[in-house]
From TrEMBL:
Domain of life: Bacteria
Pfam family, any one: GerE
Modified residues (4-aspartylphosphate): 57
Keyword Hydrolase: no
Every Response regulatory domain range: 8-122
Species of the source: Enterovirga aerilata
Name of the protein this chain belongs to: Response regulator transcription factor FixJ
Residue ranges annotated for the HTH luxR-type domain, each copy included: 137-202
GO molecular function annotations of the record: DNA binding
Record's keyword annotation contains Nucleotide-binding: no
Amino acid sequence: MQSETNPLVHVVDDDDAMRESLEFLLDSSGYSVRLYHGAQPLLDALPKIADGCVLTDIRMPGMDGIELLKRIRATGRTLPVIVMTAHGDVPLAVEAMKLGAADFIEKPFDDEVLLGAIRSAVEQSRTEAADPAIQDFTERLARLTQRERQVFDRLVAGEPNKVIARHLEISPRTVEIYRANVMSKMQAASISELVRLAVRAGAA
């Protein structure tokens, strides 16, 4: 049985080097770690998994991370699931968030960003309390201008600046300015944080 100070992280990735790197990072950060080379081995072990959180890549041969998340949720389990995604896969990550993922991390990621996401996921699994950050997020969202809200909606849908510019018939540079305003007003440090809060607030 895992202690409160030594949570268990189930790492799912088909890349041997990535699994070993994550094992070293998490182990040295005080976590217990179990490694799986694909989605199916985790599902096979799921009945015996009592706690912790799942950290899975999205793009894997065979069953991908999205399908793994669906299968876990279909069992009724509420294990927090964090998905790892390559740059450009934000729409997939948004889909994962809507399916109940706790967070998503874009590769290559900073170690502290990943560890922060895991800490949040573990804490989320231990409490049923409503997150006051969601209420704050909703209030800040209501204060965006009409154009900022249009840019916000397309950002959380995973559209790059050039696509947003084309849809809104403004220049990419203008999109960059609105994007910076949105990130500042929403107090989001990254697109992943913006998407995570937007999904949890029902705004994506």
